[in-house]
Write a structure and sequence with these properties.
five-stranded mixed sheet, four-stranded antiparallel sheet, DNA-binding, globular, N-terminal domain of MutM-like DNA repair proteins, Helicase, Ruva Protein, domain 3
Length: about 325
DNA sequence: TTAAATTCCTGTAAGC
DNA sequence: TGCTTACAGGAATTTA
């Protein structure tokens, strides 16, 4: 499933191709994938808009839209090349818990959450339409940005930041774990005030944004911590180890273009490479790479959880 | 207020 | 072989 590293990969791939493009048309074939506003308003809101930036916040893809050139001046299929990609602002959001970006108040955000099986792909018009494609954005260069999602856990939203916040459809997200501003002390404070299992806190998007089942298990293993241990019992030293492990798990996964353990594919339909390198996720019963003991499996916070009884105390 | 349980959804794989 | 059933999980919602 797409977690922070997978979404980061997609966003980085799409950015240079999408920035500067105008959405000429939008077709929805599955209405309820749109969570805000009503589907008709959604289409009205995106058509004719120019893509100003493409960013990520947690597991959310944020596409900033500004009014595009009028219909008369819309370039044809072989229109001008996009401007050189702006160095994306690494983090376009405010402080902890605030969603999501700077920029002008009237700017519109097209928000995409991939859920479990969502895919956002950039294709040319002759690429056959795949089953479960729920939305197609027709771009002014003839290409199409397609949203596909067999299990339909994903969602699309559009609106000004103000409107999205007011709609309550966007959650308050915790800090970005790979942000340099995110310090071990901050993680320690969050853990101290929670009586839930460590794993449950890592999965809580309000505590830390972008971590899902794969990287929660991976980082707990790297930190040698039991997933079921209550968060408020960890020492400062352990919290520092978890902080470091979290960053490492996520950054290595980004370097390897994400984990394709289920149906995850990047913007070009290609699988990532991290699934080959996972330490524990999906390896229940197989030997621990550190001690050789078979990895254990249990259920925490409603999620399958794999860990090593010997290495993770 | 927080934590846990339930729900949504369909493709896949195990079991009979 | 073909059918049924269990399972996968992000996050909103409901319950405790």
């Amino acid at each position: 499933m797409p977690e922070l590293p997978e979404v980061e990969t997609i966003v980085a791939d799409l950015r240079p191709h999408l920035v500067g493009r105008t959405i000429a048309r939008c077709e929805l074939s599955f209405r309820t994938i749109v969570r805000h506003p009503e589907p008709e308003e959604f289409v009205d809101a995106v058509v004719g808009m120019r893509i100003e930036s493409v960013a990520r916040r947690g597991k959310y893809i944020l596409i900033r839209l500004v009014p595009g050139p009028g219909p008369g001046s819309r370039p044809g299929p072989s229109g001008p090349a996009p401007p050189p990609a702006l160095p994306a602002p690494p983090h376009e959001w405010g402080g902890k818990g605030r969603f999501p970006m700077n920029g002008e108040e009237e700017d519109v955000l097209l928000v995409v959450h991939l859920g479990m099986t969502g895919q956002l792909r950039l294709v040319d018009e002759v690429t056959p339409l795949e089953k479960h494609t729920h939305a197609v954005f027709f771009l002014d260069d003839g290409r199409q940005l397609r949203y596909r999602d067999p299990r339909r856990f994903g969602r699309l939203l559009v609106g000004t930041q103000e409107a999205l916040l007011a709609s309550k459809k966007m959650p308050r997200l915790g800090p970005e774990p790979i942000d340099m501003e995110f310090q071990a002390e901050q993680l320690y404070r969050e853990l101290k005030r929670r009586r839930a299992p460590l794993k449950a806190v890592l999965l809580d998007q309000k505590a830390i944004a972008g971590v899902g089942n794969i990287y929660a298990d991976e980082s707990l293993h790297r930190a040698r911590l039991r997933p079921g241990r209550l968060a408020n019992t960890v020492s400062k030293k352990s919290a520092r180890r978890l902080h470091e492990s979290l960053r490492e798990s996520l950054l290595v996964a980004i370097a390897n273009r994400g984990s394709s353990v289920d149906t995850y594919r990047d913007a070009w339909g290609e699988a990532g490479g991290q699934q080959e390198k996972l330490l524990v996720y999906g390896r229940a019963g197989e030997p621990c790479f550190t001690c050789g003991r078979p990895l254990s499996s249990t259920r925490i916070a409603g999620r399958t959880t794999v860990f090593c009884r010997r290495c993770q105390r």
